[in-house]
Amino acid sequence: MSQDIYNQEYLKRLQLADQQATCLILRSESLLVIRTRLHSFWRFMDLPIEVITEVLCNVTPFELLSLSHTCKFLQEMIMRRTAEYVWLTAERNSATYPSYPWADISKPHFAGLLFMMLCTACGNHTANPLDPFLLVRLCSKCCSTEQVAHVFVSPKLTFI
């Protein structure tokens, strides 16, 4: 009985949202775009977690990373350790995604290194490529300050 009441209240909220969006159609075109997207987003957030997870399993790692920056709810959902399955299926959806041989960094961290053009040290935008051995992306300024030439490293450590 209480489930029926909940469903009726949910349907009333959806109908009210549709009526508000319809009223905005009559007012102005620019408000329509903002409001209808807002209502569509909240309808998406009302979906069960299983459905949202299934939707997230059909995107690429770049799209997952982009979605994680849209709102706090999706960020918490996508960046959890329990979302490993979502990242694995996203990797399979991308034909050009490189293999993931490292166990010491998480899959979201690896995707961030690949796709976000930010310096690992200072956080500024950089066009420099990712260093595949150090797993860092450094800007020109940080390259000179953060990297150490192998000449200065003790010979005892060079075999590591």
Automatic annotation (TrEMBL):
Q: Which domain of life is it from?
A: Eukaryota
Task: Write down the InterPro entries for this protein, in alphabetical order.
Answer: F-box-like_dom_sf (IPR036047), F-box_dom (IPR001810)
Q: Name one Pfam family in it.
A: F-box
Q: Where is the F-box domain?
A: 41-90
SUPFAM superfamilies given in the database record:
F-box domain
How is this protein named in the record? F-box protein
What organism does the UniProt record list as the source?
Answer: Rhizoctonia solani 123E
